[in-house]
Specification:
It is a single chain. This protein is α+β, with helices and mostly antiparallel strands and about 110 residues long. The chain has a single domain, classed as Winged helix-like DNA-binding domain superfamily/Winged helix DNA-binding domain (Arc Repressor Mutant, subunit A, Orthogonal Bundle). It has four helices and three strands, in the order αβααββα. It has helices spanning about 10-20, 25-35, 45-60, 80-109; strands at about 25, 60-70, 75-80. A three-stranded antiparallel sheet has the order 1-3-2. The two termini are about 25 Å apart. About 20% of the residues are buried.
């Protein structure tokens, strides 16, 4: 299983932005969605997720609002901003380019 420290710099931000592009979620929901989409190969702990969320909020890529969950608990719900959508687009293009380059080298070596 891949852990946060196994991710390339900036990859966690890209993955979180991608998850939030599908709709707003609270932190635990983001964690569950990442695990589900990766078929349990990726598990992100709170110590990695929340600093990333705070950093992205400071950059204006996401915004947060305190609300009550379906379990009647208070949680911060995160949603993507216009700047976040643009950042996701840029990060995805960069990831696609880098992935293709790495694949070329690995196949040729």
């Amino acid at each position: 299983m891949a852990k946060k420290e196994d991710l390339l710099q900036g990859t966690l931000d890209m993955l979180v932005l991608r998850v939030l592009s599908r709709g707003e979620l609270h932190g635990w929901g983001i964690t569950l969605k990442l695990e589900q989409l990766s078929k349990s190969a990726l598990q992100v702990d709170e110590g990695s997720l929340y600093p990333a969320l705070y950093r992205m909020e400071e950059k204006g890529w996401i915004e947060a609002e305190w609300r009550t969950t379906e379990n009647n608990r208070r949680a911060k719900y995160y949603s993507l901003t216009r700047a976040g959508r643009k950042q996701l687009e840029v990060a995805t293009e960069s990831w696609d380019r880098m992935s293709a380059i790495i694949a070329l080298v690995m196949q040729s070596a």
